[in-house]
Specification:
Number of helices: 4
Structural class: mainly alpha
Radius of gyration: 17 Å
CATH architecture: Up-down Bundle
CATH topology: Four Helix Bundle (Hemerythrin (Met), subunit A)
Distance between the termini: 31 Å
Number of domains: 1
């Protein structure tokens, strides 16, 4: 797949999948993003910081699929190469981490416990999808390269040191 097609496909998928999960559903659950209470300003400020960081991580991760993977995150148009650069050097699932963090952050900003619960449910669904579909698919598609990467880079909690494919035996 060419980069232009990968970029277009990734942009569409970004709007359709994470856009619905982090935008439409929280909007619906929070009555149009209405304020749900009076939580301390520090909690709300932390929520805003996490919102901005998570959105940046999500866009960055999608970009890695275009630039390095020459594909999209959508299962119908997968990458031609295993993506192990950028945020993927620290955590295997940065898109899902960003999506869950974005949902939880909205719960903090809007003082909506329901969004915090939704974030945990969304994480459980994504983790199940990763285990039952993505990991077996990546094993089949990328074989030993994926197994080495999977053995060194954590799935959900970022490591402090970056993965170096030239030194794959070291855990970051």
């Amino acid at each position: 797949m060419r980069q232009g097609a990968a970029a277009a496909g990734s942009a569409v998928f970004l709007v359709v999948a994470p856009g619905v999960v982090t935008g439409l559903v929280p909007w619906w659950l929070s009555d149009g993003w209405s304020d749900g209470g009076s939580w301390p300003w520090a909690v709300r400020a932390a929520g805003w910081i996490v919102c901005v960081g998570s959105a940046a991580l999500l866009v960055h991760s999608f970009g890695r699929f275009v630039v390095q993977g020459l594909g999209t995150p959508a299962p119908v148009a997968p990458t031609a190469h295993l993506v192990i650069t950028g945020a993927y050097r620290y955590v295997r699932n940065p898109m899902y981490v960003a999506v869950v963090a974005l949902i939880l952050a909205q719960g903090l900003v809007l003082a909506r416990p329901l969004l915090l619960g939704y974030g945990l449910v969304a994480w459980a669904v994504m983790a199940t999808f990763v285990r039952t579909y993505e990991e077996p698919t990546l094993r089949r598609q990328f074989g030993a390269e994926y197994e080495v990467y999977r053995g060194v880079v954590r799935g959900w909690i970022p490591g402090l040191r970056a993965y170096d494919p030239e030194r794959p035996a070291e855990r970051p």
